[in-house]
Amino acid sequence: MIKNNILPIFNFIKFYIPIFILFFSVLNEFDLNYFISTKFSFNFVFILIFYWYLKKPNQLPAGLIFIAGLLNDVLNNSPIGLSSLNYLLICVTTSYIRHITLRPNFQKDWIIFLITILLINSIDYFILFFIFSINLNIFNYIFNLLFTFIFFPIFYGLFDNLLKFTGRRND
Amino acid sequence: MASGRDDFVIALRSAFLKKSNKQKFSLLTLIFISLIIIALNKFNFKIINILESGLKDVIYLSSSLISYPEKKIRVFFTKINNYYNDYQNFKFDQNLSKRFDTINLINQHLISENKRLKNIIDETNSNDNYLLSKVLIDKQNQFSSSIILNRGSRDNVELGMAVIDNGYLIGRIVEINYSSSKAILLNDINSKIPAIIEPIGIHVIISGTGYDYGVIQYSKDNYEIKEDLNIFSSDGGNIFKAGIPIGKLKKDINNDETKVEFFSDFSQLEFVNILLSKNEF
Known about the structure:
The complex is a heterodimer. By secondary structure, chain A is an all-alpha fold. Chain A is built from seven helices and no strands. In chain A, helix 2 (17-27) packs parallel to helix 4, helix 4 runs antiparallel to helix 5 and helix 5 (82-100) runs antiparallel to helix 6 (106-131). The longest helix of chain A is centred in the C-terminal third of the chain and has 29 residues, at 138-166. Chain B is an alpha+beta fold. Chain B folds into three domains: 25-57, no CATH class; 67-125; 130-281, Thrombin, subunit H (Beta Barrel), CATH 2.40.10.340. In chain B, the strands form two sheets. A six-stranded antiparallel barrel of chain B has the order 1-2-5-4-3-12. Chain B is elongated, with a radius of gyration of 25 Å. At the A-B interface, helix 4, helix 5 and helix 7 of A face helix 1, helix 2, helix 3 and strand 1 of B.
């Protein structure tokens, strides 16, 4: 009886693990540049959204991505709505790619990810610098972009395994 | 050719407008909402500010709770690192200890002499009022360096108040909510504060870099600034009380530039003091 009650809850949590990871990574204050180098940083959330919205959009609803962006802006002291816009633009790109791709493979995804984050960071820089007149160091953006691109395959592999674990439900 | 264009339009329309079963808004709608929020933010509407202030308290608290385990892990690793460094320094410090005892005696003599002389010229000593505050969130990366404190307008915290860690200046309050406030740290890329280099007495502006050091952005004349000189806050611009220690000048070996090495380690902040008495000079 107890097993019958617990199983649906467990399945629900398992299915929505990407959402928990998204909110956890947005709300926490962990930065690897504390330990490795002051120049080291990468955008884990970009990789997470790109992967899951490409492979299983049902597990990462756009509405929650939008809310995660708002939380990220409040915590990072950036203009409210900017991260939401960035995240949603990743969703648009991945959604478009999903519709036009017949045989998806890792190499294609990696290159498209690079183009996507280049576009997103450009928009981000443009809005912050030209609209909000915030002083920015472009090299920080370049390092961040480079490390995000380099770390993509590692997380791609990890998420592939996670997908096998979580994505067995049809919605 | 026309069919190719049709495919592109169909894919694009699908990307922007298609909704899954449980989704209430399309991506296009959400993007529009984001853009509207950014625009409202840019024009600084009062209602957005009120909503923001209310939301921030809740979000800061949630973030603080979620970050608690990793904060403890970080503190644990830092402590191990500190113990190792302390051990390395221990032998060196033993030799210095005797020398410092002598210096301390001279220092005590100078302090008492200074008090006696102040009494002679009738100068009153200001009593600073500090408010101990816990660091709820410590958000530091190249783009922003700020801390969220558990003191807000209900504790009489005001904008521009100095934030102090172990007697060293580390930042100033830039945002106040009811029960929390945000302080921008000295290493934040947008931080610029007036300071004075002692003992040569040159007034400068210390600017943050996004890293763990600052730079001298402006000095009135091009003085030759030597290494190991101490920097204190100055009362220029009526921003801070004068004389709070900030850091030390260091030469960068790689590019021969002068850096400001802060006395306080900004990655180790747990409790800080807010200097409640504002500069009245």
